[in-house]
Write a structure and sequence with these properties.
Family: Belongs to the ATPase delta chain family.
Protein name: ATP synthase subunit delta
Keywords: ATP synthesis, Cell membrane, CF(1), Hydrogen ion transport, Hydrolase, Ion transport, Membrane, Transport
Number of domains: 2
Number of strands: 4
CATH class of the largest domain: Mainly Alpha
Strand content: 5-15%
Radius of gyration: 21 Å
Helix content: 55-70%
Number of helices: 8
GO molecular function: hydrolase activity; proton-transporting ATP synthase activity, rotational mechanism
Subcellular location: Cell membrane; Membrane
Strand order of the largest sheet: 2-1-3-4
């Protein structure tokens, strides 16, 4: 997986630099996300894996499916990826692009997992505390997972804070078994 990320990085950087210079970060993020979904479709994977199709045919297939979601530069990007046999990297490129975009905009997406639904006031208070701690704009997405029993799990890029009761019980069991 690390190898695919490494291969995708120069394409991501090129797309990001282009979008930044043209003022189209949001548009490119949406284009890449949509094309990544198309390329990840099981039927599309099967068709794109057909060795009898040329790079041009593969590019045209994706462009025809994504027609309304791709501008001329996006179509050129698809052609470039097809010529280099890198269409399968679109999901990785999309993720990396969004990370570069978040870094540029000084924002971070935080996934908050709780055992029970939190009221919006508490989520806002948590977002404000994270904003101060991380020095970035914070967008919180919350979900409920009753299997954690209680507490919270926060995920923000590579930062994970597991304050769940399930994790604490696992640590206690490990300590008792040692």
């Amino acid at each position: 997986m690390a190898e695919l990320n490494t291969i995708a990085r120069p394409y991501t950087k090129a797309a990001f630099d282009y979008a930044l210079n043209k003022g189209g970060l949001d548009q490119w993020s949406e284009m890449l996300a949509f094309t990544a979904l198309v390329v990840n479709d099981s039927d599309m994977k099967r068709v794109l894996g057909t060795p009898s199709l040329s790079a041009e045919q593969k590019a045209q297939l994706i462009i025809s499916v994504c027609e309304k979601n791709l501008d001329e530069a996006g179509q050129n990007f698809i052609h470039l990826l097809a010529e280099n046999g890198r269409l399968a990297l679109l999901p990785k490129i999309s993720v990396q692009f969004d990370q570069l975009k978040a870094d540029h905009e000084m924002s971070v997406d935080v996934d908050l997992t709780t055992a029970y639904e939190l009221d919006q006031q508490l989520v806002d208070k948590l977002a404000q505390a994270l904003r101060s701690k991380l020095g970035r704009e914070v967008k919180v997405t919350s979900r409920v997972d009753q299997s954690i029993l209680g507490g919270v799990i926060l995920r923000a890029n590579d930062l994970v804070i597991d304050g769940s009761v399930r994790a604490r019980l696992a640590k206690l069991a490990e300590a008792m078994n040692s």
